Structure formats: C-alpha cells, structure tokens
Amino acid sequence: MLDRSKIVGSPVSRIDGPLKVTGAAKYAAEHFEPGMLFGHVALATIAAGRILAIDTRAAERLQGVVKIYTHENRPKAAYRDSKWKDAVALPGHPFRPLENDRVLFDGQPVAFVVAETPEAARDAAGLIHVHYAAETPNTHIVAEQHNSYEPPVARMKQFLPPPPRGDAEAAFAAAPHKVSADYVLPGEHHNPMELFAATVRFEDEGRLTIQDKTQGSQNSRDYVCGVFGLDPDKVIVKNDFVGGAFGQALRPKHHLFLAVMASLDLSRSMKVEMTRREMFYLSWRPSCVQTVSLAADDEGYLQAVLHHAVHTTSRHEDYQENVANWSGLAYKCDNVKISYELVKLDLATPGDMRAPGAASGVAALETAMDELACEVGIDPLELRVRNFVHRDQNQDKAITSKALHACYREGAERFGWVARSPTPRSMRDGNDLVGWGMAGGIWEAMMSKGEAKVRLSADGHVTVSAAASDIGTGTYTILGQLAAEVFDCPIDAVTVDIGRSNLPKTGVEGGSWTAATTGSAVQAAAKAVVKTLLGHAQSMENSPLAEASEEQVEISEGRLVLEANHQVGTAIADIMAAAGLDAVEEQAKVGPDILSMRRYAAYSHSAVFVEVKIDEELGVVRVTRVVSAVAAGRILNAKTARSQILGGVVMGIGMALHEEGLIDHRTGRIMNHNLAEYHVPAHADIHDIDVIFVEEQDQRASPIGVKGLGEIGIVGVAAAVSNAIFHATGKRIRNLPITIDKILESEAVQ
Amino acid sequence: MKRFTYTRAETVADAVAILADRPQAQFLAGGTNLVDLMKYDVERPDAIIDINSLPLKEIEELPDGGLRIGALASNSAVAYNAQIQARFPLLASAILAGASPQLRNAATTGGNLLQRTRCSYFYDPSTPCNKREPGSGCAAIGGLTRMHAILGASDKCIAVHPSDMCVALAALDATVEVVGPDSARDIAFGDFHRLPGDEPQRDNTLARDELVTGIRLEANRFAGHHTYLKLRDRLSYAFALVSVAAAMEIADGRIVDLRIALGGVAHRPWRDPLVEAEYAGAPAEDVTFQRVADRLLFEAKGLGGNDFKILLARKAIVRALRQAASGRPQSQTLKAIQ
Ligand SMILES: Cc1cc2nc3c(=O)[nH]c(=O)nc-3n(C[C@H](O)[C@H](O)[C@H](O)COP(=O)(O)OP(=O)(O)OC[C@H]3O[C@@H](n4cnc5c(N)ncnc54)[C@H](O)[C@@H]3O)c2cc1C
Ligand code: SF4
Fold first, then answer.
1. Where would you tag: which of A186, A425, B207, B307 has the fewest CB atoms within 10 A of its CB?
2. According to the model, what pLDDT value does residue A2 have?
3. Are B234 and A685 a contacting pair at CB < 8 A?
4. CA B132 to centroid of ligand 1, rounded, Å
5. In 3-state terms, what secondary structure has residue A692?
C-alpha cells in the first residue's frame, strides 16, 4: 500500500521529465501546420523618434516573401485601450505593434515580414530600410531620477507605500547609530531558454488553435479575442510546455499579436518565433535607485526606517512592483517612512521578473541592515533576531505563520555561522580573503481564484484538468501528487491535463501562487469526487457506509472505506457499477479566504548565508558556499521545491555578480543583447548550494498549507553575496553587479 | 542574412581557386564565428566555401622536434592531443580557457586565428564601425568601452582580438602556413595579426586570396614553466578582460628565456620581445615580475570604461609570471584562480 502521508512532500521526479529529455515535449515553436507561413520582426534601431519612411522594396523582391506589414498597412485592430489590456496589464497605454510612426524604445517592432520560409522572412527583415527622425533619448536612471513621480494610478493597491508611522525623520536624527546610503541596480533581462513563439493553426469557420509561449493560456486567448474581436469559443490557446518564463510570459507579447494578425489577414496558418535579441526588449527587471536610511539604539533595536525607491518605466505604461514596502514589515520598527516613484525613460516597459520588487528592494534593505550591524557593532544575524516581528506593521495585521527563527537557527548551524570572525578582512584561505555574509528574504504568499476538474474512472485512473501552466516549476507533478494522495493511487495512475485555454479557469502562472491555487482546487475537486462516490455508495443496498459522513471516509487501495476502520468499505469499481457509471467527475472552485485576509497577511521567509572567496590581489570573486533556509509552509515535492530554490539562488548570484543590461546612453540602445555578452552564472561560478526547508504549518495561507516557492529563493541572495564581499574586503559596493572593475576601483583588494 | 551559394572544396588547390573566382566568398570551417556574423548581417558573403573536407585535420610531429597542427584540427583535438599536452601545455591550457566544450569541438585552429572582434558595435550593422564599413566611424569611441583596447589602439578602432589560443601561439612564436593561388608562404605569428592603424578592416596580414593550412610550433623548453591566466567577468565562458600567456626557462633562480603575451588588451595578442630580452638573466622573483609588468604596460592608455584593465593587467602579469616561475600553471578546470 502506498503511504498516503508520503506521496505529497516526497521527491517525486517530474512526470513530464521523460517527455522533456527525449524531445517528445513540444514547445510553441515546434509545432508545424501544413502550408504554414513564417513571420520575422524588424526592430527599431533608435530609442526615440519617428519613422519617416520605410523602404520595403528590396525585401519584397525576395523570393518567398508573401507580405510585409508596417504601421502604414497594418490591418485594423481594436480601437480602445481597454480591448488591448490583458489580465496583467498596467496603468497607461498598452503597446500596440505597428500602430503608428512613433518609436518609443530601442528594439520596438517596426515591420513584420511574412514569408514561405523562416529564412526568407529573416532575410527580408534585414533588407528593410527604415528612415528615422531620431530624438535624443533619456535612458540613464541616475541622470533622470530628478524627474521621478508617484504613479497616479496604482497597478495594485498593495504596491502603494503604507502610510508613514511614527516620525521616522525625527527618530533617525535622534538615534545614536545610523546608516544611510544609495543603492543602484541595473536593468536585468529575462533569458529563459525558450524564446517567445506562437504557432497559429488557421481552421475552418474562423477557428484558431494557437500554441503560444505564455504563462497563461486563457490570458493569451482573451487578449487576442479582445484585440481582434474574435469569439472566445472559437479560439484555443495551448501552452503544454513552457521552457522557462520567470514572469516574462505573463503578458502577451508582440509575436502573438503579429502571428494572429497575419493569420487572419492571409487566412493561413502562421508561425512567429523571436530572436534572442528581441527578448531583451520585453518585460525586464527595471533599473532602480534606492536610498535606505536605518537607525538603531545601542542594542541594535531599530528606531527608524526610511526607504525611498525609484525605478524605470516606459513612456507609455506605468510598470509598478513592490520594491520598498518590505522595509516596513520585515522588522519591528515604529518609525517608518516609505516612498516609491517611477521615472519615465525611453526604454521598453519593464515587467515582472522573479520576485519582482522584492529582489530589488530587499537587496537594498538587507545590505543596509548589514551596514547597520557594523555601525552598532553586533553580529548581523543577531541584529535581525533582535528586530524580529510577528506582525505585519504596514497593514496592522497578524501573520499566518513565520518560522523565520527556525530559518536563522538551522541555516546558521548548517553554515557554521558561529565561527565567523566579525572584523572585515580577518578571515583568509591562502591567497583568498574569505567573507561570510547573510541576509533575510521575504515574499508574499498569495492565492488567487482558480478552478480544477478531477475525474476518477472505474478502473482507478485519475484525470486532473485545469488551464494552469507548468513553466518548468513542476506544476504537472505536484497536481498529480495531490490527486494521488486523495485517491491513494500511484502517481502514474494520474493524468494531468493542463496548458490549454478550454480547461477550467485559471489565472496566469506567476507570483508563486499556482501551487496554492490550482493545488487547492485539485484537492477540493478530488474531495468532491469522494463525496459523490459516497453518495452512490450509500444508495447501494446494505451499504456498510450508510451512516458515514464525508469526513469519515477516505479512499484506500481502490476502496472507499471508513477512515477509522479500513475493513469497512466498498470497492470503487463496485460503487460505479452499481450506479451505472464508468467515471465520477467533479469541478471545484477556490479562492482566497476574504475574511481571513482582513485579519491576516501571509508571507514566506528565508535566511541566506553566503561564503565568498576573493583573490586578494586580483579581486576575482567566487561564491563558494550558500545555505538557503526557507520557511514556505508545506512542501509538496522535496525535489521540485529544492530545484526552485537552487534556481533562485543561482539567479541571485547572477544579480550580485553578473547580470546587467549595458545601454549606450548616447543612443539609448542595449548593446549586449545576446547570451555571450549578457552574463548569467556559468557552471564554474556555482559551487555548493544547500537548501533547508524548515517545518511550517499554515492552513491559513492556503487550504493545502502551501505558500509558494517560485520567488523566495532569489530574495536576499544578492545582499548576502554583497555583505560577504564586504566582510571579506572591508569595502562596500552599492551598485550591482559587483564586477571585477568595481572591486579594483574600490580598492577592496590591494 | 544575405543569400549565398555553397560549395564544398575537396582539395586545397580547389579551395583557393574557388576563392580567387569569387571575391565575396568566405571559407567555412567550424562556422562558430562566421555563421553568427552572417545571422547578424555583419558578414555578407555571396559564396560559402566549405573547407571541412580538406585534409588539414592532422597534428603531426616534425623531424626537428616541432609539431604541425592542421588548420582544421578542432580546438578540442588540439587541446587534448597527448603531444600538445606534453610538449606545448601552454597551448592546451589557453584553448581550454576559451569558449565552451561544445564550441571547442566545432571550432578549428584556422578559424580561431581568424575569428573577429567581439566589439558589440561591430556586431550591430546599424552603428558606424570602421572595421565593418571602412570610413563610417567608430561607435565604440565615447561609448561602451569596457572590453576595449588599452594598447595599440588607433583613433579609427579600439577593438581587441578575442582569441585565447592566439595569445599562447604568440608567446610560443608559432608560424602560420598559408597557401595562395600561386604559392605557399609562412607568416611569423608576430606578423600575422595587426594593429588597427588606419585600416581596422584588416585584422591580419593574410591576403584576401589565401587559405591558412596549418600552424607550426618549434620545440621549446617551456613545458616546466608556463601558465595561461585568464581574467573575465565570470569564471568560465566569457571573453578575457585580460589574459596572460607566460613561459620561461629558469636556471639557478634566474630567467634564461622569457616569453609573455597578453590577450584582451589590444587588436592583436600583445607581445614585446624587447622587454623579454631585457629581463633574460634577471632573478625569477616578484620584483622582476613587477618591472616586466610596468614595462609592458608603459604605454597603456584607458578610455574611461576600461581604465581598470591597466591595473588588472599589471596584477595579472605578476601573478602569471609567479605561476610560471613556480611551475604551478593555472588550472583550467579548477573553479578558482591559483
Ligand atoms: C559564445 C561564444 C563564446 C566564445 N568564447 C571564446 C573564448 O572565450 N575564447 C576564445 O578564444 N574564443 C571564443 N569563442 C570564439 C571561438 O573560438 C571561435 O568562434 C572559433 O575559434 C572560430 O573557429 P571556426 O572554425 O568555427 O571558424 P569559422 O566561424 O568557420 O570561421 C571564422 C573565420 O575564419 C575564416 N577561416 C576559417 N578557417 C580558415 C582557414 N583555414 N583559412 C582562411 N580563413 C579561414 C572564415 O572564413 C571566417 O571568416 C567563442 C565563440 C562563441 C560563439
Ligand atoms: S572599436 Fe573597431 S570594431 Fe568596434 S566600432 Fe570601433 S571600429 Fe568598429
């Protein structure tokens, strides 16, 4: 018999793994339709200005070219902005590809070639000559920050700063210990393996089936239906497999619009796949300038927290994320002032990128906390322990659970933190200076509305379905596990059917809420199946379960039995036979508990410990050890959960040491738009990473006790690395990434 | 990407003859650089001459104790060749410091010599670039110069040569064997790559109609004291900010013969035989190494974004010479600088 308590939580390998490693899993660009056409986008090479003329003659002459679209001949699409707004749209005007002659950012689509082969389309796109009237672009956040403004329309209420509490300025002025500094983060760009792509199958009667790279098939469907006025019943969007997304594929991108536009215009099936370069102009982590001021008393108790954050947005939309509010709730403090502003630059609209806001804001806060620990003269971990708070002071709400003490304790123990010598430059290993740093991480535990359907066949096979997406996180697997738990069956008796817009309603996969939301919906639907089965069982003559309530029964080894006595029960096959059914199917709908949300706030937490070794002469930095201790409620799958944290830590190391979009501010153009020059960590940069999940029970965060793991892994990592570099060298570098030139120029090494 | 014809050459003579006929043609070896550049519309050949069938893959011993490496021997084949590892470990090490295993499997010796700069403006046809389009200007000057030259640059071009392998070949005084339509000739490695001067479009002194057929290495006594030290923005798979190929012969604690070449700092692997000669006889110790560094970098000039390279190069030279002198060459697999 299967140990029910074990299927959920255990390190079950991904059920879609074999398909992926054998290449059988098809991604959006890997679908082919007979007679399909291919599209390629020509991108703007200026950051601001107007298109004076587009010469497409040479491109049109090329063999295989079918049609070239520009703003001059683009088919009509919706007029109102509201029709262009997807589920994750921002305040402002959504970008409309090929709408008019204005160029708003480098890399903006300016023409779209449709051809018989992808090569011809690409070739032709290179032959299009665009004449511009270029304007002087502004792309430098530090130079432009004096033009910052408070967003007039909030993207989400909780992104607005909380009202100030106490008198932060006065408390800061009066405190014996204080630190205040500016932290500068560059723009970071998403580089998942899979490029944006859409394959549109043009069918009879105006039906479309679209394979899209997206984090929400229903969001893509609703977007194209809104923009082109299509009947949602005639459009199916699929995203069976997604090769990494991290937030970039939350909003529909121009490839989808252009593919559907051309397909409708030409009545042909279409495929559009982006280039790697194109990925750099879409939903990127905005460059950000922050000022954090902290004050403490002689024991290190926080007296004042001031955090001012400014980040980039585009000319046409107000992208917003929660950068600074974390500073008001991470630690206990009664004098807090937080402000948050945007600055418009001639760049594409930024977007959500793993732990949007927190990755940036907590990087500044947790570096400042380290600076404060030095100033007060206490251990940085001890400083955090002293300022622990079990309440969300921003919203004045209780917290559902916060096992952060356990993260501190278990993380420190695994890392060996007690052996840390407090003085910078005091630990070494041969030529290397050794530095130990730590930081805390925090992320909101969210649950949204979602639905799922579960079907149990008489032969014991289970099918789970929902329009959820597996963006590489392991959604297929955890949904299968949750169903297998209820039906006491092995995971291979479960088919998980997700990644299709005509399945039960699900929001976009993002913010780490899919496990909590769709997972809860699956469990609820599975329990509804059990309840229905019980009803059928009780209609049987002499049913041994006649008196049982739904709370008293469960499924065990193919039988519906009394929980208290497994001897008493009836085989599922017999129940269904008696009822004349071959399957029982139920759908369930879940959502956040509004009542509980009024009183409680839910967060996941972490403590990250980092060791760096820095060559004392050359300044080469290595992150030799990381311990990340995470409190995120119930862990559904020890393997996929660990992978989420490992990936987050690697990305955090990249944020600390490597990632940076390099803009030539004379032209406003990003110059390192490829994977050779835009650096993320290579294998050689990654050494030991140890992940600890501390015990945390939390039925309030979500019905299945899950808080989500997609984001928390990256939060705090960059600060921990930067703090370790300070500990090793005695020099504080406050603009990321910490590259070798900054180490040398700060004289961190001699 | 422009349309092109594709021809597979079967013999060296064949390859050179086809090239002579088609002034816009290019040889295709591993394709790891050429194909990328074609996709970016930087290289626009109208004809591709695939040279992979030419019998130029061998690594053979020469009667005088040297080795000849065929132009089509892959970077991996060279790096893992037992003769190379035993007698020219500096070369093996430099190759392994570059690119990734997949790229090294595809990349060839000839192609590595002829790979073009990674200057990001060169890669972007919408910007002025004298190397790509002579006379159009240099967008890098005044722009993003972090990766650019600190030595030997001109006001026409500040690009650097990106190869690691070539830095070792420069230190080892290799000879490049080339064949043209009428004759074959040898080019001393030091004469192969050029400084940009007024003609940055010319990376090297190979004539338009010539094919590189191989590299010759002379026997040397550097196997005990050498190193290839590469400093870059991550610990693997990035082009050098600064790299140093150092080799020496030492007797009684003194340098008998010194070779040192720098990568990532100039339009060609940077070497100064005069400085090397000056320190023959000097004690193999830090004071000497610092002087060598000062002398090599005497004329180094930063452009703002790359000022740090001067200091970095100074430190790298000293460390590399120390590694070479102590007989502990930098490992290319250890995730650390030694
Ligand atoms: C992502 C990435 C990272 C890299 N990192 C590094 C690195 O860290 N260090 C490093 O040194 N290199 C690096 N490289 C570059 C790599 O080493 C070169 O691309 C490779 O050596 C080129 O060899 P190939 O055979 O593929 O040349 P090809 O691309 O086939 O040819 C390159 C050029 O040489 C010409 N050519 C080729 N063979 C001959 C011949 N026999 N005679 C005359 N002309 C010829 C071609 O016509 C072409 O113009 C990297 C490349 C990439 C793509
Ligand atoms: S440095 Fe050389 S390669 Fe780069 S833009 Fe200037 S001329 Fe072109």
1. B207
2. 42
3. yes
4. 17
5. strand
Residue B183 reports pLDDT greater than 70: yes
Q: Which of these three, A538, A558, A591, is where a domain ends?
A: A591
Would the CB of B47 count as within 6 Å of ligand 1?
no
CB pair distance less than 8 Å for B308 and A667 = no
Q: Look at strands A427-429 and A603-615 and give their pairing.
A: unpaired
Q: Cα–Cα distances in Å, from B277 out to A469, B320, B321, B323?
A: 66, 18, 15, 20
Q: What is the mean pLDDT for each group of 10 consecutive residues in chain A (750 residues)?
A: 69 96 97 97 98 98 97 97 96 98 98 97 95 98 97 95 98 98 98 97 94 97 98 97 96 98 98 97 98 98 98 98 98 98 98 98 98 98 98 97 98 98 96 97 94 97 97 95 96 97 91 87 97 97 95 96 96 97 97 92 98 97 98 96 97 98 98 96 97 95 91 98 98 98 92
Shared domain for A453 and A584, answered yes or no, is yes
Asked, for residue B94, whether it belongs to a domain, the answer is no
Q: Is A595 exposed, middle or buried (0-12, 13-18, 19+ CB in 10 A)?
A: exposed
- Cβ atoms of B69 and B95 within 8 Å: the answer is no
Separation CA A232–CA A222 (nearest Å): 7
The Cα–Cα gap between A497 and A514 comes to 15
Total residues found in chain B within this entry: 338
Domain that holds residue B291: 228-326
Angle at A274 between CA A193 and CA A44, to 5 degrees: 130
A475-500: buried (b, 16+ CB within 10 Å) or exposed (e) per residue?
Answer: bbbbbbbbbbbbbbbebebbebbbbb
- From the list B144, B236, B311, the residue facing A684 with the nearest CB is B236
Say which of A144, A410, A711, A745 is annotated catalytic: A711
Question: Which residues 622-641 of A have a C-beta within 8 angstroms of B?
Answer: 622
Best residue among B6, B11, B12, B32 to mutate for probing ligand 1, ranked by most atoms within 8 Å of CB: B32
Residues 6 or more apart in contact with residue A552 via CB below 8 angstroms: A562, A563, A564
CATH code, B41: 3.30.43.10
pLDDT grade for B1, boundaries at 50, 70 and 90: low
| The two structure tokens encoding residue A672 | 């390192």
CA-proximal residue: ligand 2, atom 6 (nearest)? B138
The verdict on residue A527 lying in a domain is: yes
Instruction: Classify strands B175-179 and B184-188 as parallel, antiparallel or unpaired.
Output: antiparallel
All residues at 6 or more sequence positions from A464 whose CB lies less than 8 Å from its CB, including other chains = A452, A453, A454, A479, A480, A483, A494, A495, A496, A497, A498, A522, A525, A526
A535 and A424 within one domain = no
Is A704 within the bounds of a domain? yes
Cα maximum dimension of chain A: 88
Q: Can you tell me the distance from the alpha carbon of B298 to that of B279, in angstroms, rounded to the nearest whole number?
A: 15
Enumerate chain B positions whose Cβ falls within 8 A of a Cβ in A. Answer: 1-3, 41, 118, 120-121, 124, 126-127, 139, 142-144, 146, 231, 233-239, 241, 308, 311-312, 315-316, 318-319, 335-338
- pTM, entire model: 0.97
Q: Do B241 and A687 touch (CB under 8 A)?
A: no
Contact B233 A671 (CB under 8 A): no
Asked whether residue A123 falls in the same domain as residue A13, the answer is: no
The identity of residue A581, as a single letter, is L
- The count of structural domains within chain A is 3
Q: Is the ipTM of this complex over 0.95?
A: yes
Q: What is the CATH number of the domain that holds A650?
A: 3.30.365.10
Is the residue at A750 inside a domain?
A: no
Q: Is B333 exposed, middle or buried (0-12, 13-18, 19+ CB in 10 A)?
A: exposed
Domain count, chain B: 2
Is A541 a known active-site residue? Answer: no
A358 and A422 within one domain: yes
- What is the span of the domain harbouring residue A378? 145-188+284-446+598-745
Give the span between the Cα atoms of B154 and A277, in whole angstroms.
30
